[in-house]
Amino acid sequence: MTVSPQVSAPSVAPPSRLERFFDSDIWASFRRSRLTMAAATLTLVFLFLAVLAGVLAPQNPFDPAQLELLNSRLPPIWEAEGQAPFLLGTDEQGRDILSAILYGLRISLLVGFLGVAFSATLGIGLGLIAGYFGGLADALIMRVADVQLTFPAILIALLIDGVVKSVLGSDLDAGTILAVLVFSIGLSFWVQYARTVRGSVLVEKSKDYVAAAKLIGLPAPVILIKHILPNVTGPVLVIATINLALAIITEATLSFLGTGMPETMPSLGTLIRIGNNYLFSGEWWIVAFPGIALATLVLAINLVGDWLRDALNPKLR
Fold first, then answer.
1. Where does residue 258 fall: left (phi above 0), alpha (psi -120 to 50 degrees), or beta otherwise?
2. Is there a cis peptide before residue 85, judged by omega within 30 degrees of 0?
């Protein structure tokens, strides 16, 4: 009797993470929303312009050798007195407004991303500690959070910025001022992360996988980082997206009030503050175009954040 050899079915490779993402409900929700796709595209365009500002900008507004006072306060190129290559006109120092916006975008986004990263790291860490260990640590962290919630974020940022500058001195270079802005903005927004993560940890730590991890002797930091943290990243991602827009607005407000980036290294907020001084003298373009750029950027990020909040909400699926 002849036994025919069995032919095994060809093994199918499991789908990659990218393939699983494109098959997920989140990607389907993203494709269904044209407004979200337009906002995400606009946000990526702003990021692209900020990263390549040194290549795309007609002028380096930070280089005094490229500035000419004879070109100051020129209107946009479509006006009667407009001159090439100043497409959007110039400011009082002869800086090309378009170039200043591109470089200002870089600074505003840099402060926003670093501020969100700092606040998220601080808030997530404190939220994990408060939710997992409880007791005195939980009470202390949450009471500090409750006290900070009684003050507006911009007031906290102004207070921290003023204290740091009083300690270090007011005559600081642009790099130090940027670090102070990131520090003050980061300390202004950590509370939302801490409260959200703490609530999620209180739910997750009572589940079986945490009990199993404790049973096999895993230390608390490993349980928190490797097992609990991946299950609380959804709400954190939503908060981070929305807080990115808030951080950019906060930086612009601080710069507009004169406590942010200096005029030699202007962000969008600094450009708006400079242009506001010449608004009633007829040079409207100095404040209008940076203001439009800031409003468009913040609106695009907020639209993406609103979609992400709804997409990650299981009750709305």
1. left
2. yes
Distances 110 to 51, 80, 175, 248 between C-alpha atoms, Å? 10, 36, 12, 9
C-beta separation of 192 from 161 below 8 A: no
Given 3-state DSSP classes, what are the helix, strand and coil percentages for the chain, each rounded to the nearest 5? 70, 0, 30
β-partners of residue 96 are: 90
φ/ψ (deg, to 5) at 96: -65, 125
Q: What distances in angstroms separate CA 137 from CA 35, 142, 198, one per listed residue?
A: 43, 8, 12
Domains assigned to the chain: 50-60+94-316 (1.10.3720.10)
Give pTM, 2 decimals.
Answer: 0.86
Could you tell me the CA-to-CA distances from 93 to 56, 63, 90, 114, 196 in Å, in that order?
20, 11, 8, 29, 46
Rounded average pLDDT over 10-23: 64
C-beta atoms surrounding 127 within 10 Å: 30
pLDDT at 236 over 80: yes
